[in-house]
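User: I'm writing a tutorial on reading structure tokens. Could you give me a worked example: one chain, its sequence, then its tokens, then a sentence or two explaining what the tokens reveal?
Assistant: Sure. Here is the example chain.
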Amino acid sequence: MLRKVLFAFVMVILCVAFATADTITGKVTKIDEKGVTVATKDNKEGKAYEFAKEWKLFLATKDAKEELTGDAKAARIKAIAEKGSGATIETNKDGKVTEVTIKGKKK
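And here are its predicted structure tokens:
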């Protein structure tokens, strides 16, 4: 009995943790070392989000999702800053960006 109650308690905590994170899909209009600005269907002007201390950049192609690091990450950020790109961002409970997934072809 105690095991069932403890398991239920842990599941409730996990659900609350996932419910506080958010996923935003739109077009990245600005990106720099501090954060990212995303324009959505509801907010054409865009909303700025700060990066979390540890954040990741992914490139989603038709077949896979690949993490970009080092020079590839810097080059992709520069390309996005120049012309924008469709993306999905994941935020943590504090509203800071933990993941940016860029949609498009691999360069």
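What the tokens reveal: The first strand starts at residue 22 and ends at 31. Residues 2-20 form the longest helix (19 residues).
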